Amino acid sequence: MATVHLRIGDLVWGKLGRYPPWPGKIVSPPKDLKKPRGKKCHFVKFFGTEDHAWIKVEQLKPYHAHKEEMIKINKGKRFQQAVDAVEDFLKKAKGKEQNSDGKGDPKGKKTPNKPLKILEEDDEDLSALKDPSEKDLTDSDPEPSTVERLGAGPVSGFKWESSPASSMEPISKRLKIIEEDTGSTSIQAADSTAINGSITPTDKRIGFLGLGLMGSGIVSNLLKMGHVVTVWNRTAEKCDLFIQEGARLGRTPAEVASMCDITFSCVSDPKAARDLVLGPSGVLQGIRPGKCYIEMSTVDPETITELSQVITSRGGRFLEAPVAGSQQLSNDGMLVILAAGDRTVYEDCSSCFQAMGKTSFFLGEAGNAARMMLILNMVQGSFMATIAEGLTLAQATGQSQQTFLDILCQGQMASTFVDQKCQNILQGNFKPDYYLKHIQKDLRLAISMGDMANHPTPMAAAANEVYKRAKALDQSDNDISAVYRAYIH
Question: What is the pLDDT of residue 18?
Fold first, then answer.
């Protein structure tokens, strides 16, 4: 097998997590940015996005050797723009090379590009983690010119860590079936990092209503993965960015529903969800037999039942699919999707759910996803209120809040959620990742659900009072971690 030489300045295809391979260039990382410990990787700047990331060497391929292959499996306007940007870069690089050659032999003046060293042999931590089966990417050959390196030939035996799943596979082969104690069947989509080396977008036209904290990230990922998306938002200006990214604009919810095969909605509460469907120029006016409507808002089961009935009464197909996560997870395409209702719609939305989430579950009849989501958010909201209470009690008793957090993050309750929310509190940073007013709404709906089931929810009721106090202190539009302020005022 030929040795792969990757150096600063090389053009590559980089595979980052669940996203499709994307063209980039290996560059020097900022001096204050350390390489991830124990990993052989390069720092890559991606074309067309200006994003930077550390990419493991096994997730990198030479650009030219794999260009034809990548163009075949990746679609979408943003991807093509990125490839065009690479070609422009190559033309400029070749022009500079020719100009340099015309002025005489530059070899004596040229400063060679140094290979980016992946492992430091004297670094005990990195050496200990080194896989003996992996070869070092060291440079033993003479330094080629920039253009020669960019045009390197194919390398055998080079495979992505995760192979893309064929879009032609039956969905049953790409889904894990779980039999629940109740006898009903739920479906959990396989981890998207395993099956989404490349997502083949559905050829169905997608509509999306609501571009808030969650909806914006979802639409961005749908577009990034090559879906054809028409957007609408109550505040029309929020659509502008997505139009620039290749989305189409719908003038009303009814128009979006009539134009599209599958329409998603993600709004703030039950009233907004109902108004979007039943109000003037609402979705119901655009529903025709076979059209699909997917409610992603976190609402009560009664609202879901009502919406399901009115959509299906017009011959439409209905699915609820609320999402567990935050703005950051939405942006990263790492949401957890809870679906219920028409299972054929769930299957038709496979590529959409792969684009926006890491996992999806099918929970049976409409209303079940709303119930499960309210329970999850009830637990999260109560937990956040308890963490905030602990931080304030630590301060009141003369204990270091930072030490409390350090100890907490070394114990059994350690999680990214705990660490991030506590850091927000200690830094006084309450920029919304999930609105406080929305978690209080979810607590209220969960308590009501408990009342209807004649089931006690005393912890949620107590937490709800704390969030109501925070709302009275003008924290509604801050992050849920701002519940902390209810304890200090």
Answer: 59
d(CA 183, CA 342): 18
Say how far apart CA 325 and CA 372 lie, in whole Å. 14
Q: Which of 69-73, 116-120, 246-250, 361-365 has the lowest mean pLDDT?
A: 116-120
Is the distance from CB of 58 to CB of 118 less than 8 angstroms?
no
The structure tokens 């032609």 sit at: 168
Task: Record the tokens describing residue 298, joined without a space.
Answer: 């976190």
β 206-209/229-232 pair status: parallel
Predicted confidence (pLDDT) at residue 91 exceeds the cutoff of 90: no
Residues contacting 290, CB < 8 A, separation 6+:
261, 315, 316, 317
Q: Are 240 and 234 in contact (CB under 8 A)?
A: no
**Residue type for 8, please?**
I
Match 């960015």 to its residue by tokens: 241
Count the Cβ atoms, other than its own, within 10 Å of residue 13: 24
The CA-based dihedral angle spanning residues 251, 293, 268, 211, taken in that order and rounded to the nearest 10 degrees: -50
Pairwise CA distance, residues 298 & 320, whole Å: 9
pTM of the model: 0.64
